[in-house]
TrEMBL record:
<feature type="transmembrane region" description="Helical">
    <location>
        <begin position="264"/>
        <end position="281"/>
    </location>
</feature>
<feature type="transmembrane region" description="Helical">
    <location>
        <begin position="114"/>
        <end position="136"/>
    </location>
</feature>
<dbReference type="InterPro" id="IPR000620">
    <property type="entry name" value="EamA_dom"/>
</dbReference>
<feature type="transmembrane region" description="Helical">
    <location>
        <begin position="87"/>
        <end position="108"/>
    </location>
</feature>
<feature type="domain" description="EamA">
    <location>
        <begin position="171"/>
        <end position="300"/>
    </location>
</feature>
<feature type="transmembrane region" description="Helical">
    <location>
        <begin position="287"/>
        <end position="307"/>
    </location>
</feature>
<dbReference type="InterPro" id="IPR037185">
    <property type="entry name" value="EmrE-like"/>
</dbReference>
<feature type="transmembrane region" description="Helical">
    <location>
        <begin position="55"/>
        <end position="75"/>
    </location>
</feature>
<feature type="transmembrane region" description="Helical">
    <location>
        <begin position="168"/>
        <end position="187"/>
    </location>
</feature>
<feature type="domain" description="EamA">
    <location>
        <begin position="29"/>
        <end position="159"/>
    </location>
</feature>
<keyword id="KW-0812">Transmembrane</keyword>
<comment type="similarity">
    <text>Belongs to the EamA transporter family.</text>
</comment>
<feature type="transmembrane region" description="Helical">
    <location>
        <begin position="21"/>
        <end position="43"/>
    </location>
</feature>
<keyword id="KW-1133">Transmembrane helix</keyword>
<feature type="transmembrane region" description="Helical">
    <location>
        <begin position="207"/>
        <end position="228"/>
    </location>
</feature>
<protein>
    <submittedName>
        <fullName>Drug/metabolite transporter (DMT)-like permease</fullName>
    </submittedName>
</protein>
<dbReference type="Pfam" id="PF00892">
    <property type="entry name" value="EamA"/>
</dbReference>
Amino acid sequence: MASFSTSLPARSFRPGPLDRLATVLAGFSLPLLFIVLWSSGYVAGKLALPHTGPLTLLTLRFGLAAVVLLAVAVVTKAPWPKARDWGHLAVVALLMQVLHFSAIYFALRHGLSAGVAGLLIGLMPLATALGAHLWLAEKLNARQAVGLVGGLAGVALVVGGKPLAGAGLSYALAALGLLGLVAGTLYQKRFCAHMDLRTGSGVQMAVSALTVAAVAGPTEGFAIAWQWELVGAWLWLGLVNSIGAFSLMFVMIRRGQAGDVARLFFLVPGMSALMGFVLLGERLEPLALAGFVISAVAVCAAAAGPARR
């Protein structure tokens, strides 16, 4: 009996356009999800702030994240930092978590829109590159310098569209939040890069929770108007933002996709503005929209370029 081969020619298994498209989309899915989760934090914070004070909200957020992260560290038997490293973790917590989020939440409380908050914090990659150039002696290339100037020009258009008399304090607070995020990022890169992410982040969240709680008690009395809107925002901030976004970043670094996050970081302002428009009814004037576009193009162009290992 003659045998018949049921295999198709090899060329039939070559990936077609749909297969290549699926591969590209899979490569961008995690970075895009990270941007969505990161951007949603500003909207969630603004939804929660009418029901409690900024420091009380941060106490809830950091406390929940600390409990979950420390529990994961214990269950997975993650290595704990050495005694000399705890001070460095505390400094990072005070800069990246306490100063950054306290300033941002007070800015949102004083009327800063979620989109503008995302725009200012969206300059973080360029501001970090400038800080690394000044503090860590890392080279600042021409692309980054031009992108920084363009990003600042876009921010100037957004800020110029509103009278500073009513919004100056919120802009100053948001700028202080950006400074805390950049300083904390550089300090962590300098002193904490070798630490385990599970225990390191758990310690940072615990230090942050205790710090803001010490101030929230005397100043805000831990006053909370428990509403479903607050509960949902709190769980989202504590679990999705503080833990979920962090976990995605860890996975992308392990997969070598950290560069994709930098290239897509320019989507944070637009994503935050879109969420603010849909969920909060926030609107932007044409001049502010032009500033968003200029900043997005500047940050994207600065992050683009040949990938490095």
